[in-house]
């Protein structure tokens, strides 16, 4: 029977540790690219984007965060804690929104849009007046609209950003026919 010594175990262990490190670095590179291209996604959304499990994404996020390459922000959404991940140099603009033209009836969207504060959690944006919104809105404003590539881009006025605390919120953008709805779904932890 062959006697195992500590030195005989060191070589296979070192090889396995080196292999795990290489796999981790490869995983981190792929995930960092996904984060840079899609800032502000949750761990679950990143797992869907990469086709990995949430645990694998979480491990890679922790390594990238320790290296100082990404930032992780915590929000409460529908009573659950959600981590949103972005590159360290990504600057979030709570007032800037971009909507693909092909999901709207963009013929009604010219060079300006009407913004309506519909309730405490919902902002409506339309390329033309919406009489029901006009009668019910707590805030109203007009904003310029730019067409950049395939997108319509607009900035919300400061009074909307402040009223809805958009700098510390998760906002979901949805469209119905030719209007945009911005829904505040969560607040920073």
Characterise the protein shown here.
- The chain has 189 residues and is α+β, with helices and mostly antiparallel strands.
- It has two domains: 6-87, Arc Repressor Mutant, subunit A (Orthogonal Bundle), CATH 1.10.10.10; 96-188, no CATH class.
- Helices cover 34% and strands 35% of the residues.
- It is built from five helices and ten strands.
- The protein has helices at residues 6-37, 43-50, 54-66, 131-136, 158-163; strands at residues 41-42, 70-77, 80-87, 96-100, 112-117, 122-126, 139-148, 151-155, 169-176, 179-188.
- Strands 1, 2, 3, 4, 5, 6, 7, 8, 9 and 10 form a ten-stranded antiparallel sheet that branches.
- The mean pLDDT is 89.
List descriptors:
189 residues, alpha+beta, Arc Repressor Mutant, subunit A, 2 domains, ten-stranded antiparallel β-sheet, 5 helices, 10 strands, 34% helix, elongated
Q: What's the structural blueprint in terms of helices and strands?
A:
Blueprint lengths: L5 H32 L3 E2 H8 L3 H13 L3 E8 L2 E8 L8 E5 L11 E6 L4 E5 L4 H6 L2 E10 L2 E5 L2 H6 L5 E8 L2 E10 L1
Antiparallel strand pairs: 1-3, 2-3, 2-10, 4-8, 5-6, 5-7, 6-10, 7-8, 9-10
Shape: elongated
Number of alpha- plus pi-helical segments: 5
Quaternary state of this entry equals single chain
Q: What is the terminal separation in angstroms? A: 60 Å
Strand content: 35-45%
Q: Roughly what is the average pLDDT, rounded to an integer?
A: 89
Structural class: alpha+beta
Helices and strands, in order, run as: HEHHEEEEEHEEHEE
Number of domains: 2
Low-confidence runs of at least 5 consecutive residues: none
Describe the largest sheet: 10 strands, antiparallel
Fraction of residues in H or I helices? 25-40%
């Amino acid at each position: 029977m062959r006697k195992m010594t500590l030195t005989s175990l060191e070589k296979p262990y070192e090889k396995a540790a080196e292999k795990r490190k290489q796999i981790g670095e490869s995983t981190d590179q792929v995930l960092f690219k996904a984060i840079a291209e899609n800032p502000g996604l949750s761990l679950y959304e990143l797992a869907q984007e990469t086709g990995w499990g949430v645990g694998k994404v979480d491990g890679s996020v922790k390594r990238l965060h320790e290296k100082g390459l990404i930032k992780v922000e915590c929000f409460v959404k529908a009573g659950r804690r959600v981590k949103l991940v972005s590159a360290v140099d990504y600057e979030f603009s709570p007032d800037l929104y971009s909507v693909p033209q092909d999901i709207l009836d963009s013929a009604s969207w010219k060079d300006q849009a009407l913004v309506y504060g519909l309730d405490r959690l919902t902002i409506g944006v339309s390329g033309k007046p919406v009489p029901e919104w006009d009668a019910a809105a707590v805030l109203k404003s007009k904003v310029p609209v730019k067409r950049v590539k395939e997108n319509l881009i607009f900035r919300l006025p400061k009074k909307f950003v402040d009223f809805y605390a958009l700098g510390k919120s998760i906002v979901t953008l949805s469209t119905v026919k030719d209007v945009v709805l911005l829904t505040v779904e969560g607040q920073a932890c």
